[in-house]
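Technical note accompanying the year-one report. For the benefit of new consortium partners, we illustrate the data format agreed upon in the data management plan: each record pairs a sequence with a structure-token string. No post-processing was applied to the example shown here.
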Amino acid sequence: VAHLCMMSETERNLCAVLYGKNDLRLEERKFLKKPGKGEVLLSVQSVGVCGSDVHFWVDGNIGDAFILDRPMILGHESSGCVVAVGDGVTHIKPGDRVAMEPGIPCHHCSYCKSGRYHLCPDMKFGS
């Protein structure tokens, strides 16, 4: 298990990058070596394909609200192992296994306050 939580200088970071409708390419991308304040560096072990990924790939958009206008890395439903934590991170530590939630809700609307943050109209996505 410990080997899952380590990253080497030569580790590959293979990404599925969508450039446009039906234009999906596998590319290696650089990864950060050290997390910033309040950030976590993960070694991603698995990635799921979400319905929104499929919509972007097949249609290039999700309705009129989300239109692919620049390359985007697909695969925001991920899990892995914490490799390092930045300053101020106290609730997880290197070696912890985690699932990622890329949505950043506002924490102020009625949906967020009722525990239904996934419906937040001001949701920002880190993926």
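Partners are asked to follow this layout when depositing records. The radius of gyration is 16 Å.
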